[in-house]
Design goal:
The protein contains ten helices and ten strands. By secondary structure, the chain is of the alpha/beta class. The longest helix is centred in the middle third of the chain and has 17 residues. The structure holds S-adenosylmethionine.
Length: about 280
């Protein structure tokens, strides 16, 4: 990554505050004072690409009608997309042993519909890890209609996720048996997720604060390491909406540093960063 020298572009206080305001308005992401360097570093590249010489001109462009698509690009540049296959592995063990095993044993012939949402899916490793876990637990039984919806505000991440190509070294955290089944090496040394796996996942750009086009209901939602950037009111409103779109008894998986304590009384804590919607 290219690091911009701090004096390449002028970033006035009012420009920084304008960017903070726009990011909050568009993505619900709260950028504190300590994020000034992050803003400078991530947006310098946009300024260079667009030929601006200072942040004031860039901010004026962002606010102009012509700058509409740049507002999305700015949010793409600001979001933090760190992720990995089987990140927080205990969630996938829980999904297999507690959620899917019970479903596989109890569902009637007509009840074999499974819907899981990866909300804030970044470059796709999370939804593909869910898909591999589902496929392993339910097998090739064609009676199951299992689909994963994977969404993110960052349109570039959604495109990467949909392509399903990754450098080989990113797949080391995939259990070897699953790697053999679901990962295909390609000539340039990278890998591609199998077509069967890709067919289970639908990728869509979606800002969690916009209206949701899907109806649900979902059996489980993974929204991990996303809400850390939102303020308390935004988190409360979001978990209320998650509760609405989950089935009663549906499962909610959140990130390792997150908690629903004092945020929502619509979920019961059932395991490490795992909750269940109260019926
Ligand atoms: C750190 S990544 C987490 C990825 C994955 N869930 C995981 O835990 O590995 C956070 C993701 O949340 C997305 N995000 C941030 N604000 C969002 C919003 N308002 N709506 C949808 N996605 C958002 C970011 O674009 C980023 O890809």
């Amino acid at each position: 990554m290219q690091i911009a020298p701090q004096n390449e572009f002028r970033l006035l206080e009012r420009d920084f505050q304008k960017i903070v305001e726009l990011v909050r308005e568009h993505a619900g992401i709260v950028l504190g004072e300590r994020k000034r360097e992050l803003v400078y570093g991530r947006l310098s590249r946009r300024l260079r690409e667009l030929g601006f010489t200072d942040f004031s001109d860039y901010c004026a462009y962002l606010e102009s009608p012509e700058g509409e698509s740049e507002r999305g690009m700015m949010v793409n540049a600001i979001t933090t997309n760190l992720t990995g296959f089987f990140r927080e592995a205990h969630h996938f063990e829980f999904l297999a042993k507690e959620v899917l095993a019970a479903m596989a044993g109890s569902r009637s012939a007509t009840g074999r519909r499974l819907r899981i949402w990866s909300a804030g899916c970044s470059s796709g490793e999370e939804p593909y890890s869910i898909a591999m876990t589902v496929r392993e637990a339910l097998g090739d039984d064609a009676r199951w209609d299992a689909k994963i919806l994977a969404t993110d505000i960052d349109t570039q991440m959604v495109a990467t996720a949909k392509a399903g190509h990754y450098p080989s070294n990113r797949t080391e955290s995939i259990p070897p048996a699953m790697r053999r089944k679901f990962v295909r090496p390609i000539d340039d040394g990278s890998i591609e997720m199998s077509e069967a796996l890709k067919a289970m996942v639908v990728f869509k750009p979606l800002n969690l604060f916009d209206p949701w086009p899907m109806q649900g209901p979902f059996d489980a939602i993974f929204c991990r390491n996303v809400i850390i950037y939102f303020d308390t009111d935004a988190k409360r409103a979001l978990f209320d909406r998650f509760a609405e779109i989950l089935k009663p008894g549906g499962w909610m998986f959140i990130g390792h540093s997150e908690s629903l304590f004092r945020l929502s009384d619509r979920f019961r804590h059932v395991g490490r960063t795992i909750y269940r919607r109260i019926s």
